[in-house]
Amino acid sequence: QVQLVESGGGLVQAGGSLRLSCAASGSGFRLNAMGWYRQAPGNQRELVARMIIGYSTEYADSVKGRFTISSDNAKNTVYLQMNSLKPEDSAVYYCKGERFYSDLHGPRIEYWGQGTQVTVSS
Length: 122
Hints:
Layout: E1 3-7, E2 10-13, E3 18-25, E4 33-39, E5 46-52, E6 56-59, E7 67-72, E8 77-82, E9 91-100, E10 108-112, E11 116-121
Parallel strand pairs: 2-11
Antiparallel strand pairs: 1-3, 3-8, 4-5, 4-9, 5-6, 7-8, 9-10, 9-11
């Protein structure tokens, strides 16, 4: 059982920055991937950034060059540094953790945090 807790959301003016954190706890099994997703009212949840720890990262086209995902494996924590924020970035941001059974192409278990609100004003 893994619990993910996000923090760092809030209200920021367009062009500003926020740093989100997601701390994982409650499991002795290591997470192999962690990522950030967001969901605005009326929209589907979408990928923002995802990291297969130690191997690769991916970003949504809309955030490339502005957002950076990173992790501190010793702390079981993933971060999302968000710069040059736009009103379109406003959403609830969710942290996701993944544990692979074998490799990244195989089955896995997914865990979700409760979300943290990010609001970017014009």
